[in-house]
C-alpha cells in the first residue's frame, strides 16, 4: 500500500490545471508539465509551500502538515525541495 494516494493526487492536479496526459498520466512528459505548473517561482524545484498551494488550488481538502508528509514521502527529505531530477 502506498503511503500517499499519488494516482488521485496527480489526476486531481492535472484536471485542475487542464493538463491532458501525454504518454499516460504517469508518463515523464505529463509529470514534467505538472511539475512545471506547480513550480510557482520557476526555481526548478517544488518546495513545501508550492506543494500545499497546488493541492489546495486543485480543491484537495488537505492541511499544511499533510502536504508536508506528501512531499516528504516522495523525496524522503525534509529540508530539501523536490526537483524534477528526483524522477529522471
UniProtKB/TrEMBL annotation:
<keyword id="KW-0106">Calcium</keyword>
<feature type="domain" description="EF-hand">
    <location>
        <begin position="26"/>
        <end position="61"/>
    </location>
</feature>
<dbReference type="InterPro" id="IPR011992">
    <property type="entry name" value="EF-hand-dom_pair"/>
</dbReference>
<dbReference type="InterPro" id="IPR018247">
    <property type="entry name" value="EF_Hand_1_Ca_BS"/>
</dbReference>
<dbReference type="InterPro" id="IPR002048">
    <property type="entry name" value="EF_hand_dom"/>
</dbReference>
<protein>
    <recommendedName>
        <fullName>EF-hand domain-containing protein</fullName>
    </recommendedName>
</protein>
